Request: fold
Amino acid sequence: AVEISNDSLPPKKPNGDDRCPCLSFDTLQDDNSLPLEPYTDFSHLGPNTNVSMYGVGCEAHDEITPACSDDQCSTQVPLPDDCDKFWCARSWCFVDPSNCKLLHTPSIHFTDRHFSYATCGQIDSFTLSERKKAIKDKTYQVALNSNSGGWRGSYNPEGSFAVNNRWSGPIVDFLRTSALEGGFTMNITRPPEWIREDAKKFFGSSSFDYCVYAVSLGYLDFCLAAYTITNKRAAVANFFETTNNGVYLISFVDVGGTSWSSFIRSAKTIFQPFTWGAWAMIFFFVIPILSLLMLMHEHGAPGSAYPLTAPALVVGQRAKLHKVAQKHVPVTSHVLTSLYMGILSFFQQSYDQSVVTVGGKINLLAISSFVLLVLAVYTANLAAILTQDAQNMPVSDIAGVIKAGYRICAERKVAELIMSLYDIDPNRFVPDPIELGGDGGPGFNCPNCAARSRVFDFMKLDNSDPSLYCDIGIASEEDLEVLHGSTQHCNKTQIGKALGYESIGIPIFSGVSPELISFFHEMKNEGVLNRVSSESFPDNSCPETGGEGSSLNVEQMTGIWIIVFGFALVGLWARLFRKHIKPLGKETKRRERWLERYDQWGNPTAHSIFIDGHKYEPDHGDSGKLKSRRSLMVNDLDLSPGSEEMDKRDETFETNNSDEFCNEKTTSSEKQVSFYITSRKLVGGEMPVI
Reply:
């Protein structure tokens, strides 16, 4: 350890520092130096104080005064507010204010006298103690502005300068608590109307500037709201700083909107996991090739889904003679079926059609691995795209805004801050609307347009009117927080780092600012401001739009809706209109219909077939057998051939002359038409349902 002897310490300065020398005894006795003799009341100094030497040289002149010898500070619990007696043992002296460059203060007992603890190397705790006493039982003239945004300020439904008890906000709660603690009252009033025009000439049309102007002149003791401390405001009034607000770029959460181009962007989202080239490769090469290879392997194999022939019914007209025979299945029909099966397996993630050949089973491995791997990659990419879309902002900093040529919405004070920090052309900002009382300058400052919330209201995607709307906004974090707390502008978010910080505070008249600012800092340091602020913090009521596991909105799923309902509409169209479409090819006098029907996977369906009341039973030969004739009366509906109900369901056959039905063989030009009637299983004597 290093010991420092008292000899090495600098000597005390009994006459004060050279930058602020103490007034000597002789100087104080000089008629031109305002000696103590003109003052006749020295009772506060007590009988033991040498009045002629009081304030001469650096001494603890108040140590033996009644104020410092009172023992109530050691006997009362809790201690009174005036028990801060640290100044009693500290040195000070009277100084000449015109010859003092250190801290000095006017005396509260001796007019035109100044004293300094600083020149004696001491802290002036006497002044600090007296300042707190000065606010007790005092009434301050106060006007309140209603902030147009954020949540940290003061708010009233009747607007600025309302004289009522409807004021709210953390800054109001802080002053109410401070008034109770400090023992002062606030008289709510308005700035004088006759100085409004002068305030407008000096500052502008803002009601906040109007109140600051009245404070600077002393017509008000302080104004209450969250005021941005600009250079011009700070030059005319003292401020108690309450907080700093970060200023951020504000952009849209996603690329949504109401325009056609926005709809197209949302629809394309479902296809973003792959490039258009990859999609073309999947649907126009890989799926068709694998499907046709499966057809090649399975075509004509016993028990496969692609048989060479299938039983068909040929119907005569007059005698209603019927012929059941095996007919050749066109290859084109199998090609279409195989392509459909390939696409269906891709969407259903499974190839469930019966496969009987060795080559087909190996080809099935290719199809299954393709479906598994492609859909796994697709699902992972789509999830990442949809849930992280909120993070994909068009720009991330002010340089990107300038490069993109975006128009900017901002409140006037924010615009001035950003222009002072960055090299931005003022014309980038949407002008203050003149029709609403604005001045046409950069940034919103109009008294009747809610300037802070206007920043968000006039942000617009696909901006077609840059004179009115903007592409991006710049606003304080608290403005966005309060809007999200009321589920407004949930499609907007702050991006990047803070562009700058606004100093926020309340303006205080210089005549009362020392004691008030000192007391407000004391209350702030005790956590009062933090407590009332945390109680007022708005909870975010907007749905989550980004991050892992977040919910997707309807707009983000536009592509899914298009695909799903597109298929549904095509199926509905096929159900409603296919019977009205004439088949292609040459018309013949007789018609053939396939008897076997297959499901979506190519598997034969389980149903009973009745032909003129005869039940058809396949016997695995060239033709089936027609069993006993039955009446087709089901649920009071006559579904016999030729009945009205049968005609409505398009289940009757167009038949030809019976004399043309004598040939065992059919010509190649005859149509082959599928025919089936579904039924329940027969239980006892229950009739089938068609």
Q: What stands out?
A: Confidence is low (pLDDT under 50) at residues 1-9, 31-35, 620-690. The chain has 20 helices and 20 strands.
